[in-house]
Amino acid sequence: MEESTQAGGVSTQVVVVQQTNGIGLAGFIVSLVGVASCGALAPIGLILSLIGLGKQPRGFAIAGTIIGGLGTLFFALFGLVFILAILGLSAAGLSIGEMATHGVIAGAEAEIDQERANMGALPSDADGKALISGMSDMWGVGLRYELIDEDNYLITSAGPDMAFDTEDDLTSDDEIGEEDGMDDGEPDLGDPIDPVEGGGDDGGGG
After folding, report:
1. What is the pLDDT of residues 60-71, one digit of tens each?
2. What is the residue extent of each domain of the chain?
3. Are 105 and 157 contacting, i.e. CB atoms less than 8 angstroms apart?
4. What is the CATH T-level fold of the domain 92-174, as seen in this structure?
């Protein structure tokens, strides 16, 4: 802006330079771009706008602070939802893997039971291992067969950690011969009820 004055034949020009706030303007622009990018750049725009608040003029800095703040909030909420979704998918994937592995274990049991039906006895550890050698759980680890006694066996999956004998092992316990569920101390509902003594008093009072 220029102003001209003339006094005593002398011409004077006064140049007034308008003050700008480059950081505030940059914060405003970055905040706008941040909103367009789903809030990814909004935190940077917010920081620049906050710095720009310390300089005049502050119009763009104020606008950038508001837009950048909203964009940052949206970005934080979006990130939280994304993380929760990933965790949920991981849990669902683990559950699906466990269910599928139980199906593989059931198939291995069918092989062992078929061998027992054919041979009249459960296979040994080596023979049982050979029978199910081609069966693996959903994490790529082969199933383990163990002969417990002549009537019982155990098939085990290493589970998600792919290591046997840990807490997340998946097993199918075929304890078909166990019949010890009743406690000897429990009352037997079939026991005879003792007759009530003194029941003959009703008829003897003649």
Report:
1. 889 989 998 888
2. 12-80, 92-174
3. yes
4. Glycoprotein, Type 4 Pilin (3.30.700)
